[in-house]
Amino acid sequence: MVRLRTIPFSAALLLVLVAVPSAAQNSVKRNDRPPETASPAPERRENNQKPADQTRYSYEFKQPQFLITHIVIEHDAAGHGKISFERKGEETPIDEPVELSATAWARILGLWKDLRFLDSNENYQAPKNFAHLGIYWIGMDDGKRKRTAEFNWSNNKSAWGLAMEYRHVADQAILIFNLNVARELQPLNVPQFLNEMEMLMTRNELSDPKQLVPLLTDLRTDEHIPLLARNQADRILKKIAK
Hints:
It is a single chain. The protein has helices at about 10-30, 100-115, 155-185, 190-200, 215-220, 225-240, and strands spanning about 55-60, 70-75, 80-85, 95-100, 135-140, 145-150. It is of the alpha+beta class. It has one domain (about 55-240). It has a 6-stranded antiparallel sheet, covered by helices on one side. Strand 5 (about 135-140) and strand 6 form a beta hairpin. Helix 3 runs antiparallel to helix 4 (about 190-200) and helix 4 packs parallel to helix 6.
């Protein structure tokens, strides 16, 4: 006969007292959690995005007798691109990145829209010929259609305005390049380029002077350039701030 082992009453009572709080705690933990629901499948991001605008824009200017004989600007629909320019007597073009500010790009894009460029075949050349002042080309390519227009003067305000806007982009980019080179190699030439900057600002012929603030801020404290240039940079910064 197998004898059953008995547990003393006091030990049994202790087991019950320990088990009950533990069970209650486990019950609270289980009841604490809200019922799990399946997370909705994440939507594919590309389904919510509009197709990127692949349109490319271009500007070109040529006059072999000018100091800057040839300029080409190419950029995308966000204003990111590059500029290539050639100096008289030099065969190798200089390539630099170019970034249209939001303000400049808004003006330029407005002029492109005014022209309805790809939907038009208008000849923008004015009756009078001013080829001695240089020839302009403006172009657009949206991936399906492509068009380039040539003129040396135009009575179409939007076409001429577009050529001038791009010319201001070029003047500003070339000025920045010249200042950076002078700062590194010919510090004594920095004042003359700052004089040019002030002149272009006075004529409203810079694309967006606010883009020059980082460069001017550095020049203002650069002890490698003449004190005159540092004072000029400070003066121009104050003009831009106004």
